[in-house]
Structure formats: C-alpha cells, structure tokens
Amino acid sequence: MAQPDSKKIFFENLSGAGKAIAVLTSGGDAQGMNAAVRAVVRMGLYVGAKVYFIHEGYQGMVDGGENIREATWESVSSMLQVGGTVIGSARCKEFRSHEGRLKAAHNLVQRGITNLCVIGGDGSLTGANLFREEWSGLLGELVEQGAIEEDSVQKYSALHIVGMVGSIDNDFCGTDMTIGTDSALHRIIEVVDAIMTTAQSHQRTFVLEVMGRHCGYLALVSALACGADWVLIPEMPPEDGWEEKMCQKLSANRAGMKRLNIIIVAEGAIDRSNKAITTDYIKDLVVKCLGFDTRVTILGHVQRGGTPSAFDRILASRMGVEAVLALLETTANTPACVVSLCGNQSVRLPLMECVQMTQEVQKAMDQKRFEEAVKLRGRSFENNLRTYKLLAHRKPESELPTSNFNVAVLNVGAPAAGMNAAVRSAVRVGISEGHKMFAVSDGFEGFYKGQIKEIKWADVGGWTGQGGSLLGTKRTLPAKHVDKIAEQMRMHNINALLVIGGFEAFESLLQLFDARATYEEFCIPMCMLPATISNNVPGTDLSIGADTALNAIVETCDRIKQSASGTKRRVFIIETMGGYCGYLASVGGLAAGADAAYIYEESFDIRDLQANVEHLTEKMKTSIQRGLVLRNENCNDNYTTDFIYQLYSEEGRGVFDCRKNVLGHMQQGGAPSPFDRNFGTKISAKAMQWITKKLSETFRQDEGRVFANSEDTCCLLGMRRRALVFQPVVQLKGETDFVHRIPQEQWWLKLRPLMKILAKYKTSYDVSDSGQLEHVLRTRPKESDASVAM
C-alpha cells in the first residue's frame, strides 16, 4: 500500500505555539520588502507564534532596546503598497565583529527569539549564516559572563535562519527573481517610455545608466523590454572594437528612418580589459563619430523608490508565508535556507550554496571568464542575453539562411498588452531564421478577406512598448470561413502559422486541426501563444497581458483605498474582468490586500456573504479604517456587484459605509508591463524556433512541400510550474471547461487561502505544494527554461 505523503497535511497541524520569530530587513532597500514583512508577521501570528520586528537591520539587533519590538496584526496594516522598508534598514559594521554578534545574541535570547527571517542581499544572508554557526559558542560566552542563565543554553540551543532575497539588482544565484527587481524594471521602463517621446521629437540619442554594479540584469531586461539599440553589462563586455560597431548600428538605424537611439548602460559596465565604460564616454563617442545630438540620463535611486509592482507584492507575500512554513519545519540539523522562485514555483535552497554560486560569478568576471559568468547567472540571464542579441542585431542578408518558407502571424480574440512585443519578436526571429514573414490584420476575419501582407524587420521597430494590438484583432473563429482561409493560404503559400491570443485562439487552433482532414492547406506547423488578461487558457499558468491587467487593478485599488484616508470607515466593492475566470480578482486581491474576493470557481452563498460582512465589521470596530472586496464579473448571476454593495451597505450601517467601482476596460489598456513585454518577447522567440524545427522535419523533398498532420505539429506553448511546454491542443481539450471558457484545474486557486489568512480569516491551508529543500545546480535543470518568464 502506498505511504501517505507526509507533506500533504493542512496548516492547522503546524503550530508555532511557543516559538518566537523575528523579522528584519538589511542592506539596500527594495520595493516589496514591506509585503514580505507583512506576510511573515501575519502568518507567524496565525500559527500562534510571537513575532518581533527588528528595526534598522543588524544595527537594531546589536543595539537592542526599542529596536526589537513585538509585532501585532494591526502594526502591518496599510504597508503592502508602501515602497522601501518601514522597519528600516542599515549597514552595520559592528555586526561584522564578534563583540557585535555577542550583543545581538544576548538581545535575542532575552526575548526568547530563536527563529530569524532575514530579508536582504547576499551580504546580509552570509552574515546571518555566520551568526547561526557561532550561536552555541556565543551563548556559552554569555553564560560565562553571567549575562544569561545556564538553562538558556539548552532552551535556546539552536538558531534557525530563513532568508528572502530583497535586491533590485536580481544578482543572487538560485532564484529567478528577487524581491524588488520587477518594481525597479517598472521605474526604468516608465522613464525610457517617457524619454522615447522627447528623443523622437528631436531625433536624439539617449544614453541611460541603470543600477547594477556587479550584475547587468536590469540593463539587459530593460533593453529587451524597450528594444534598445545597444546594451552594456558587466557579465559580457563587448569585443574589442565595439565602439565602431555600435556607431555603425546607430547610423544604420537612423538610415532606416528611425528618429531616435537608446543605449542602456549598467553602472558596472566594463570592457574586456576590466576598464569602466561610462555614460559620458559613450556620449562623447557618439557625438564625435556620428555628430548625433546626444543626452545622458542617470536614473539613480529612482529605481529603488515608488510603490511595489503587483508581481513583487505577490512574490513577497508568497515568500513570506513560505519562510514561516520553513521555520516551523526546521530542525537543529536543517541548514539555513533561502526561499526562492523557480519558474512559477516556490523552492527552498541551502543559503550558503546560493551565496557561493553568487561569489563564483564575480570571481569569473574578475578572471575574465565572461562566458562562464553568464552561465553561472542562470538560464534566465542566458536566455535574456541570447534573445536580445537575436532581436537587436540584424544579420546581413548574405549571412541569413534561405529557408523559402512563409510564416503568417496573427492576433485573435480581445487585445492584451504584450501582443505587439510578441509579434515583433516573431517577425525578427523568423527573418533571422531565413523565413518570409506575413502579418494578418484583424485575426481570422482579416485572413479570409485577404488582409495579408509581408512584414519586414523595420516594420516592427518600436512595437515592444505599445499597448493593444497593432495588427488588429477580432473574436471571429475560422470554422465558418475555413474554405476562404484555405484559399488565402494557398494563394500566399503559407507554410506555418503563429496565433497569438486568448481562449478564441485556442478554439481556433482546434478548428484548424479538425479542418486538416478536409483541407491539406492546414497540414502545416501551427503554434499558439496565450495572450489574454483573463489568464483563462488551458495548458499555461500565465498569459501575456495578465500582469499588465493586475498592475492596473492594484494601482486603482491603492488609489481608491487612499481616497478614504482620514475619512470615516469605508468598504469598497470593486468589480474586475475575467469572464468566468477568477484569476484577476483572486491574485489582484492578494496583491492589493483585499478582505474578500468572490469568484465563479469557489461557489458562495448568502451565509458566506453574511460571514464576510460580520468579519469586516469586527475588524472595522477594532483596527482597520478601510476594507476592500473584489468581485469577478461573472462569479454569480444573482449576487451581482449591486447586490453585494447593497448588502454590505445595509449590514454595515453604523460601522462603515460602502462605495462600489466597476473597473471595466481600463484593465485591458495601457502600456505593457516589463513582465509582459519580456514574457511575450521570449516565448514568441521560442515558438518561432519550434516552427523552424517543425518545418524542417515535415518538409517533403520529393513533393517540394510541407506536410504536417500529427497532433504534435499543432501546439500551445505554455508555462507549467517550472517548465515551458509545447502541448498539442487536442490533448488540452480534456482539461478544458468549454462552457465557462476556463481550464478545469487552475494553480492560482492555491493562493486564495493566503489572501484569507492575511485578511485574518481562519482557513485550511494545504502545504503539500510548499517548497522542498533542493540543491543549487551549476546548470539548472532543463525544465527551468520556464525562467524565460522574466
């Protein structure tokens, strides 16, 4: 008989009673740290532990006194949307000395604290591990000095450490994303988008310096997200003679009717001799060689500031809860670990393995082993660099392979931010692979009407940052017009199809697969990329456009909540889009700090509504001033937004008043977020490489044509946990609820208990999916290609 999985238990079985957890932020601040602190405090209190703030990082631990204070549920209210760290951070020389750590140990033992949650960079985490290793020796010294009783050594014998990496540079090996990185990218892209309009007006070249003294992640990803002409990073210095090549590239772009140039430089950028490359050097070079009007902008600490993005709030909340879980499960022999992200999954990694790998990167750079430094940064970084080179630098016609294949790309369904980035990537990668690329306007409606034309490299310049769909998109499905579409494919000799869209795109590919039996024109490789704000496509955890919509919801919720500050107690009822899929309401609720989120997937009745009102009323009487309730537009036919608003208004009378807001199409508009730009860019590049491979495999030499009729030549490219997977669409039919247009199983439903716990509800929490302690691998497993998400 199979043994039960020991991890498959519910959270009420894990008790923190009698434990004391302290949380501190150390080193440079990063947006999202407050969300992590909030999650640690509330999860710690939820399981019955005592939780302490350590103010001012390690300095506060050394100084003790008022710097170490017990935390309450209310003490972390209204901090989710605040940037930086409200408990303060400081670099502490004293903690580096043995005497400083002795003082710190004394201050912790006095309060019975033996569980530390450290949010910071590699230096902060290394210091925490050293402190842990010295712990028993430090307690021995304190006994000798008479500072503590002898029984304290036995009682507090082990110090347990769990780390979360808070760093905007994303310079820590072992995690795809660190807390603060996505928010920093938001700041950079906001500035770049603004600069582009003025640069275009005056035909200027702008040289932008972004943070990253030892790591080029911010520079590289922002260059990818805005389509920069040139990028300089410390991990991969340019080859000797780069100055001439860069000037040739800038000049060629201007000759191609481009009115501006953007060069992005990491502050730690170096040449092959380890000599710094400065923004002023580049400016003088461009002016001298090309005579272009050139300006320098140094972003500086703007990148650290501002409110955290939706991604960082969700990441930090998930990591904070995972950190408390890790502390509850730790034993005296458990090594200090770091809670990190791999693809879309939480993992726990030994802290010192991650630190050593991070230090190896710097060593490789110092010794000029640059290729190795890039590999050590991980697959995510490698992928970014490879994709940037592919899209930014066009090969001369003579160097391009000649495939003689025609590939069509089109958008289907509702517009989603990031679609244009995906189209740009497909076109440029396709051209680099030697294909002739065709753009289809207005989806399958445009297809059967013959709105098909060849699209060139320069035609998609500047598309990355544009919202909506520049190709045009319609919800029309191909089934009714399949004969006309087949005729158009024959006329234009289309050999492969890339469809970018939501649930309609999925249905379209199923219809085209079925049409293969009648029309040989559809016996070609076909690939779909999920792009919908609703994130309701089967076969993928994430869709292009969903992150932008989440940020729109979270920003609006922040403003709406702020509108009630200083007034009487108020609850806001907010309706989100998503059809029958509750992703936006649930994940948006987690990111915005909602008290409840009503969705179709989790049925509710009048008793649940009543319980929510009573819960909010109780909270309003004791602590909070504002409440937030999200409702998915199709969650229930009878419990409409108006009904819920009137119910809350009536039942809360005398305690709070109510306001309602329907967010509508603002969730669909706006410039794409950095995440959506990069996700769209990279999965589109991967899809085009798959199409090239399938074209080669299915080309029949004797007939001189492509013939692909197997299931694996009609696929959806989706992200599943840690893996990017090409899945035959016919195999996904069984996983789909076609009536409600949602997948039958949705990963994010496991996040809903987190939202409830953080809103002070008693609920069950299945920990079977929590992170397992793994080891850092020099080359991450192939499945972690999912890191292309960022």
UniProtKB/TrEMBL annotation:
Gene Ontology CC terms: 6-phosphofructokinase complex; membrane
Active site (catalytic residues): D169 (proton acceptor)
Location of this chain's protein in the cell: Cytoplasm
Residues annotated for ATP binding in this entry: G28, R91, C92, G121, D122, G123, S124
UniProt catalytic activity: beta-D-fructose 6-phosphate + ATP = beta-D-fructose 1,6-bisphosphate + ADP + H(+)
Enzyme class: transferase
Required co-factors: Mg(2+)
GO molecular function: 6-phosphofructokinase activity; AMP binding; ATP binding; fructose-6-phosphate binding; identical protein binding; metal ion binding; monosaccharide binding
InterPro entries: 6-Pfructokinase_euk, ATP_PFK, PFK_vert-type, Phosphofructokinase_CS, Phosphofructokinase_dom, PKF_sf
PANTHER family: ATP-DEPENDENT 6-PHOSPHOFRUCTOKINASE, PLATELET TYPE (PTHR13697:SF5), PHOSPHOFRUCTOKINASE (PTHR13697)
Biological role stated in the UniProt entry: Catalyzes the phosphorylation of D-fructose 6-phosphate to fructose 1,6-bisphosphate by ATP, the first committing step of glycolysis.
Name the record gives this protein: ATP-dependent 6-phosphofructokinase
Organism of provenance: Stegastes partitus (bicolor damselfish)
